Amino acid sequence: ESGPFQGRASQWNTAPERLSPGEHAAAISLYLAMMAATCLDMIGAAGPTLTEGPFARNRVFLDMLATTTGRDVLLPEGSATGTSVGAALLTQGSTLAEQPASHPSPSGELSIHLTAYANHWRVALAERTEEKETC
Known about the structure:
- This protein is 52% helix and 6% strand.
- The chain is built from 4 helices and 3 strands, in the order H-E-H-E-H-E-H.
- Helix 1 (21-42) packs parallel to helix 2 (59-69) and helix 2 (59-69) crosses helix 4.
């Protein structure tokens, strides 16, 4: 009951138990990237997105985040958890000592498939929102 879609039930297009562990992990990564992009959009985020911790090592998440936001995704060096560095940057108003690496935006067929997935996700979300409002 929290997040940008409060009061809505989650839904899988394929039963999770029918997915291989890799497919399940990819689906979760895509979902988390779409949720991150949604939250960034809600706060009016602009400019590059700094991604730390385990997400900075998740290529599926990074590819979808870059695709769906249309912005650069940056990866600071040596940040294992991300939480402590991110909190320090917010509270101290400081900047990173090292220039973070940039995750390359997907191109070609991968970009086309990720864009199609993001569009499908948004359409499905809009349809479910309309259904909820008419009930």
